Amino acid sequence: MDETGRIARAAGVIGFFTLLSRIMGLLRDMAVGYLFGAQGVADAFYVAFRIPNLLRRLTAEGALTTGFVPIFTDYLTRRGKDEALRITRVIATFAVVTLGAVTVLGMIFAAPLTRLFAPGFATDPEKFSLTVFLTRLMFPYIFFISLVALAMGVLNSIRHFMAPALSPVLLNLSIILCAFLLPPLLDEPAVSLGYGVLLGGVVQLLLQLPYLSREGLRYAPDYHFRDPALKRLLLLMAPTVFGAAVYQVNVLVSTVLASMLPEGSVSYLYYADRFLQFPLGVFAVALGTAVLPSFSSLVARREHEELKSTLSYSLQISNCISLPCTLGLMVLAVPVLSLLFQRGAFDAQTTLSTAQALIYFSLGLWGVSGAKLVIPVFYAMEDTRTPVWVGFWSFVFNLLLSLVFMGPISVSPESNLLLRSVAALSQSLNLFSLSHGGLALATSVSSTCQFLVLLLILDRRLGGFPWNEFWRSFGRSLLSSSLMAAPLVLLAGRIDWLGAGNSLLTRGAVFLVMLGSGVVIYLALTFVIRGPEHRIVEALLRWARGRLLGKTT
Description:
Elements: H1 3-36, H2 40-78, H3 81-108, H4 110-117, H5 125-138, H6 141-157, H7 162-181, H8 191-214, H9 228-243, H10 246-258, H11 265-300, H12 304-340, H13 348-362, H14 365-380, H15 385-406, H16 417-429, H17 436-461, H18 467-492, H19 504-529, H20 533-549
């Protein structure tokens, strides 16, 4: 099987199990929305969870995994499995020691971290105190989930994708169970969510251990911290900490600025980002995870032409999936949020405010998806500086755009220097007043620019990139997506999604018709236009049919 075949199959496996995870994540967010809505306690949880979750993206998915996979693949290819497993034990021991120290420090300095990530909470002592407590409670999650990421790196490198993709299901299940079972035992019901996160980190790690053992990797401390492989990993990780996770850093900037906006803004952005993560996780992250071992293998064998061909194929898959998802999310934002979330503490105004953020976030789905494919090429070539510099300027651009789009902020004269400085900049730079929607739009624009700049640099680095194929693929997918969205807009406008004008059963039936029609129309248009995308769709459909009939492993 060639590399494009391996990528399609691996992406299918990861996407299938990630879909299960995202469904559980959706149920989790529905539960949290029902119980807490967009109230102050929900804002406190989302900020507290964002802090260790960002570190997870930085030290785990952002740097540890992307730095480890090329090294492990190189050792596996050139020196054999025993040597690859040996250096894994060294790296795992170093990770246990350093992550333990980071966890302890994070718990000690939970209050200063909260002031840094949510300065606007300082004016509400009760919300600030709850956020600090939740941050301290959930910080050990970074320890467990980073070790999970290392285990994922090993398993993905040897082309085992099921267990790593399935493990987030356990996190979501843990949060749901704790959210419903623990509140009667606690003074503050929202603390149950923190216990759910902590439990989820433990069970995710436990899931990986049998599969690692089956491959011959059993943990035994190895303190040879002078090993060249560890030094090589640290050199790769140092710059990738920022470069690979710049999207998450941009989202974090949005959270910091949202804490200065009216109550509920943090929650609106969180719920919207969670919906964006559904297609992003099922397709873009799955594809990005699948391509890294292939890219690393091609670089190790110095097959650069095959590398360009594989990257081009991967980006065409991304176009084929991300563009219809973008337009679909924009059309279905209000319908899906009203159906799944609008009950309990989650009212109609919360639906509209969250939909505004989701629409603006959706505009960046294409760029974020593309970046998740381009960045691994740099890491496979062990070039970490380029993504860092591009990521840094993307971060700066996002910050400036946020101040331009969000509108002016007003703070009291007694506020701290950071709040007063941000308020002054927002009043000087603002051109629009989109509130939290402006923060989502800024993230989308900066992410798209980051992707295009990285692709231009890679064009020069690889001695050319098949731009004609890429833009033709983009045009075909955009045309099909636009033709798909047009009838959905007309149908959506005939239903009262927010009020009592239509029953829940009617709204649910219409939504399912819209969703099914959109998929059928897009697939039909893909085959009518007859570009390379129809072969991609055919491959994915064959894989799905094989899974359903039990013909694949």
